[in-house]
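Example 3.2
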Amino acid sequence: MPEIIKVSENINRQVKTSVLNDVILDAYNLNMPPTYKTNRLKIYYTSQTGVKPPKFTFFVNNKNLVHFSYERYLENKIRENFDLKERQLCYNLRIEVITNGFIQTIRS
């Protein structure tokens, strides 16, 4: 019975954006993403955009710079820190372009 309660709590868990960003920043600094033609992935911020299943949206400078192994690395860090080991995670990558001080989100 305690395992059922734990799974139920994990399904409905909402992670605060500030806490999530701290975890992602620590993971980013611990293992920097590889560069491609002198360009490096920048993660502006991350937020939880869904609950069942947990869905996370990463706002990045270029989604083509995200290697599949780095995606798995970030996913595993989220699983470790928020006890989501048994749950399927969904995540989106959105590109944000900063021009003239304004952020323009490009849905992808």
